[in-house]
Amino acid sequence: MAGLMGPRFGAQPGRARQLVVLLHGLGADGQDLIELAPDWASVLPEAAFIAPDAPDACDIAPYGRQWFSLQDRTPAVMAAGAQRAAETLEPLIEAELGRFGLPGEALALAGFSQGAMMAMQLGLRRRPPPAAILAYSGVLLGAESLAAALAGKPPVLLVHGEADDIVPVGASRAAEAALRAAGVPVEAIYRPGLPHAIDAVGIEAGARTLSRAFAP
């Protein structure tokens, strides 16, 4: 990727005070998550939102993009794939912050499914840490080495449907336990009956988290 390419919403360079990067799931693209931006802009009216398209074509479906391959779902292989993708994504986010004239602390990361994996992989290891990480229906990869890898302790919102048959809700329960053990502040919301999706409750929780993270 030469830059963060994907749909954008909100404040323009010179006017933005925050940057929120929305990371889509496997087999989707940035258009899948940019629809969250108008809701969240109601509490962050001076924020710029970007939902970049992942760099690679999805290799397990005939459509969409992927941050890394999931053909091999061995935990160590997935963690390595996410780390490689994060190393590619990090300088592009830095370039976006520079484009908007914003410090690293003005960043928030949000992701769904594989994008949630990326948000946690990058955000928990980033210096300076983002103001917040919002992870919907995701997995915390490399949890066993998290304490040593942490670059900061940004607040994390976990939201997961209890009827999710793509990424079981146990993944977020395990993430919650690992993050709390590492001293990372966590809010976890488990939605009865919700499948692999983001509902209105999750969107509202995201707005609250962003509002608190960027409070004056």
From TrEMBL:
Keywords on record: Hydrolase
Domain of life of the native organism: Bacteria
Domain Phospholipase/carboxylesterase/thioesterase: 15-204
Molecular function terms from GO: hydrolase activity
Family from the record: Belongs to the AB hydrolase superfamily. AB hydrolase 2 family.
Cited InterPro entries: AB_hydrolase_fold (IPR029058), LYPA1-2/EST-like (IPR050565), PLipase/COase/thioEstase (IPR003140)
Name of this protein: Phospholipase/carboxylesterase
Pfam families registered for this protein in UniProt: Abhydrolase_2
